[in-house]
Write a structure and sequence with these properties.
- The protein is an alpha/beta fold and about 425 residues long.
- Helices cover about 35% and strands about 25% of the residues.
- The protein has eleven helices and 16 strands.
- The strands form three sheets. A seven-stranded mixed beta sheet has the order 3-2-1-4-5-6-7. It has a seven-stranded mixed beta sheet with strand order 12-11-10-13-14-16-15, sandwiched between helices.
């Protein structure tokens, strides 16, 4: 047993750490606002101007180039209406105040051009031809600056860039994640070989130009596939992960775990999800496809018990860590396929009051929905990144005795053809 004196010392230290962290958060948020204000894209342009992206015709990543932001929102609203209006009321889409530089995760493919110069960018849509991009209007600006520095270092350190055709070379990809609230930055250097010549000097040179980097990871991917990350990693600097703050909770984010790419809009999305759930503190909640535990841990503040399930083992490790990090005692997380997990719970006769589900783009499965229906939760809060599969699953939910109470679209991906929705389903009385 720890002594009261030690407990008090720990509480005082924690209080001081939290105070220091809050100061850092406020400073970083101030810098973030300044970055956006100083960018050459005015906030009023969302309704007046079209994007000036020089890569629009080659990249293919932003399908709504050439439209004003108002026109984009109208198209997305129309799409969701066409699918969901026959099931429920579709509320007005929630757009961004400033729809630029919102991506907290940036992935760059490395290649060489015809002049043998190192380039970085994205694959042209439908091909493996790299479109060189120096500055993207939806990517975090700090990430783009770090990528530019890494390209310079690759040249000065005389490193070979990986060639997909010959499968020869060393440096393959750059992945950067940034906590917008904390300012922490992760750099993942994806290499074809585990042997990293002069790695300490490389990292030192990188951090001299970008001291904001808090961790650097070498990920080894020697496979001849289009997969970005390999299975093995080495931490070259820092703690091997970053943290960010969302809806009052602090989350650890590793290189392989999923975290919403637009934290500004995600806060609004999750706040609506919690509002629809209407938790009172008495409910048993299931967070299906839970990722690093974001929704479940936010819900745990107003629920009696939370159970999270996720197939990605790295994400589950983060979820368990995040549970302890936020001193949450009423949440548990399991690494398992969500459909199989729900089947096992249903077969054991276990019940749930509310189910949050945030499946991948492919949507859920009939097996999952069948099992969920056996558990008969009063409410299901369905978060979807693809309206087509959402509508398909809603049709099956209705067959299982659920009524659709409302659909709320959120624009998490400005300039692209993607839209996020949250839907409330309630159990009908027999």
């Amino acid at each position: 047993m720890k002594t009261n004196w030690k407990n008090q010392q720990q509480k005082n230290q924690k209080k001081q750490n939290n105070s220091n962290k809050q100061v850092r958060l406020e400073q970083e948020q101030g810098k973030r606002k300044k970055e956006l204000d100083q960018s050459n894209v005015s906030q009023s342009s969302k309704s007046k101007k079209k994007t000036g992206c020089p890569y629009a015709k080659k990249c293919g990543g932003c399908q709504y180039q050439g439209l004003t932001y108002e026109e984009q929102l109208m198209k997305k609203q129309k799409w969701v209406n066409s699918l969901m209006k026959k099931h429920c009321t579709v509320h007005p889409i929630f757009g961004m105040e400033n729809p630029y530089f919102y991506r907290n995760k940036v992935h760059a493919v490395l290649d060489r051009d015809r002049k043998n110069q190192v380039i970085s960018g994205v694959y042209q849509e439908g091909t493996h031809r790299v479109v060189p991009i120096d500055r993207c209007l939806i990517e975090d600006q700090k990430a783009d600056a770090i990528i530019a520095t890494i390209k310079e270092l690759i040249k000065s350190f005389k490193m070979k860039v990986y060639d997909e055709d010959t499968e020869y070379g060393f440096m393959r990809h750059i992945l950067i994640k940034r906590g917008f609230a904390t300012g922490e930055v992760m750099v993942v250097l994806v290499t074809a070989s585990p042997v990293f010549p002069s790695k300490n000097n490389f990292v030192k040179a990188l951090r001299e130009k970008h001291p904001e980097i808090t961790t650097v990871i070498q990920n080894i991917n020697g496979r001849g596939t289009s997969m970005v990350l390999g299975d093995k990693e080495h931490v070259l600097y820092g703690k091997g992960y970053i943290e960010d703050v969302l809806c009052g909770c602090t989350f650890r984010i590793s290189s392989k775990s999923f975290y919403q790419i637009n934290p500004v809009q995600t806060e609004h999305l999750y706040e609506k999800a919690m509002e629809l759930a209407g938790l009172s503190g008495k409910e048993k909640v299931i967070d299906a496809y839970c990722g690093i535990g974001t929704i479940g841990l936010i819900a745990s503040k107003k629920a009696k018990e939370v159970i999270g399930v996720e197939l990605n083992k790295d994400a589950v490790k983060d979820a368990i860590f995040n549970c302890k990090r936020n001193e949450i005692k009423n949440a548990r997380f399991y690494c398992e396929d969500a459909s199989k997990f729900m089947v096992n719970m249903a077969e054991k006769g276990q019940k749930a009051d509310v189910v949050f589900m945030d499946p991948p783009r492919s949507g859920s499965t009939e097996v999952f929905i069948d099992s969920l229906a056996m558990m008969a939760p009063k409410k299901v809060v369905y978060i979807s990144c693809y309206p087509e599969t959402l509508e398909r699953d809603v049709c099956y939910f209705k067959k299982k005795g659920y009524k659709v109470k409302g659909c709320y679209p959120f624009d998490l991906f400005p300039w692209t053809g993607h839209v996020e929705c949250v839907v409330l389903l309630t159990k009908t009385r027999k």
